[in-house]
């Protein structure tokens, strides 16, 4: 497996169902896609081996865990080349508050999604963490006031 074309309707149904609830047993999943457990188990292993399923996770409530202050931070590096980009990527991977990072086009080089407890924490984070990155040129922060839609799956 390597391309979307190699997935049939049942594979897509399995993926859609798992996006809704990854804790289903093989037997429960089989019932939902109208197959027996053995072929569903084999399809699951094939989908995992083919990289269609990256991992299974629990989605936590950021508010209840005092990490509900969400910031999208656009970062522009002073200059950009392969080594600087690789170094920035390595640094960002090690910062737990950064939950997502995208290399983007336009006026900025990267878009970071950052979870923090509050504005004061974020201010300290900018000064003591992001601000210490040597290649950082500038940044612009956008604070999330309300989350209107947050879907973890992709449309299949």
TrEMBL record:
SMART domains in the cross-refs: HTH_ASNC
List, alphabetically, the InterPro entries matched: ArsR-like_HTH, AsnC-type_HTH_dom, Dimeric_a/b-barrel, Tscrpt_reg_AsnC-like, Tscrpt_reg_AsnC/Lrp_C, Tscrpt_reg_HTH_AsnC-type_CS, WH-like_DNA-bd_sf, WH_DNA-bd_sf
Q: Which ranges carry the HTH asnC-type domain?
A: 7-70
Does the keyword field hold Transcription regulation? yes
**Which GO molecular function entries does the Swiss-Prot or TrEMBL record give?**
sequence-specific DNA binding
Family annotation (Pfam families):
AsnC_trans_reg (PF01037), HTH_24 (PF13412)
Tell me the GO BP annotations in alphabetical order: regulation of DNA-templated transcription; response to amino acid
- This protein's UniProt keywords: DNA-binding, Transcription, Transcription regulation
What's an example GO cellular component term for this entry? cytosol
Nucleotidyltransferase recorded as keyword: no
Superkingdom per UniProt: Bacteria
What's the protein called, per UniProt?
Leucine-responsive regulatory protein
The organism's taxonomic lineage, starting at the top: Bacteria, Pseudomonadati, Bacteroidota, Bacteroidia, Bacteroidales
């Amino acid at each position: 497996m390597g391309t979307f074309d190699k997935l049939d309707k049942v594979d897509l149904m399995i993926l859609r169902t798992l996006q809704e609830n990854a804790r289903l047993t093989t037997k429960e999943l089989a019932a939902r896609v109208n197959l027996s457990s053995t072929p569903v188990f084999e399809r699951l292993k094939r989908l995992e081996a083919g990289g269609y399923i990256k991992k299974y996770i629990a989605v936590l409530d950021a508010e209840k865990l005092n990490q509900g202050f969400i910031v999208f931070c656009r970062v522009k590096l002073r200059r950009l080349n392969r080594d600087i980009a690789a170094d920035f990527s390595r640094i960002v991977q090690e910062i737990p508050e950064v939950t997502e990072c995208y290399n983007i086009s336009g006026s900025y080089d990267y878009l970071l999604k950052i979870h923090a407890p509050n504005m004061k924490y974020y201010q300290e984070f900018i000064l003591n963490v992001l601000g210490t990155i040597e290649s950082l040129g500038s940044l612009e922060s956008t604070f999330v006031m309300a989350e209107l839609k947050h879907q973890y799956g992709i449309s299949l």
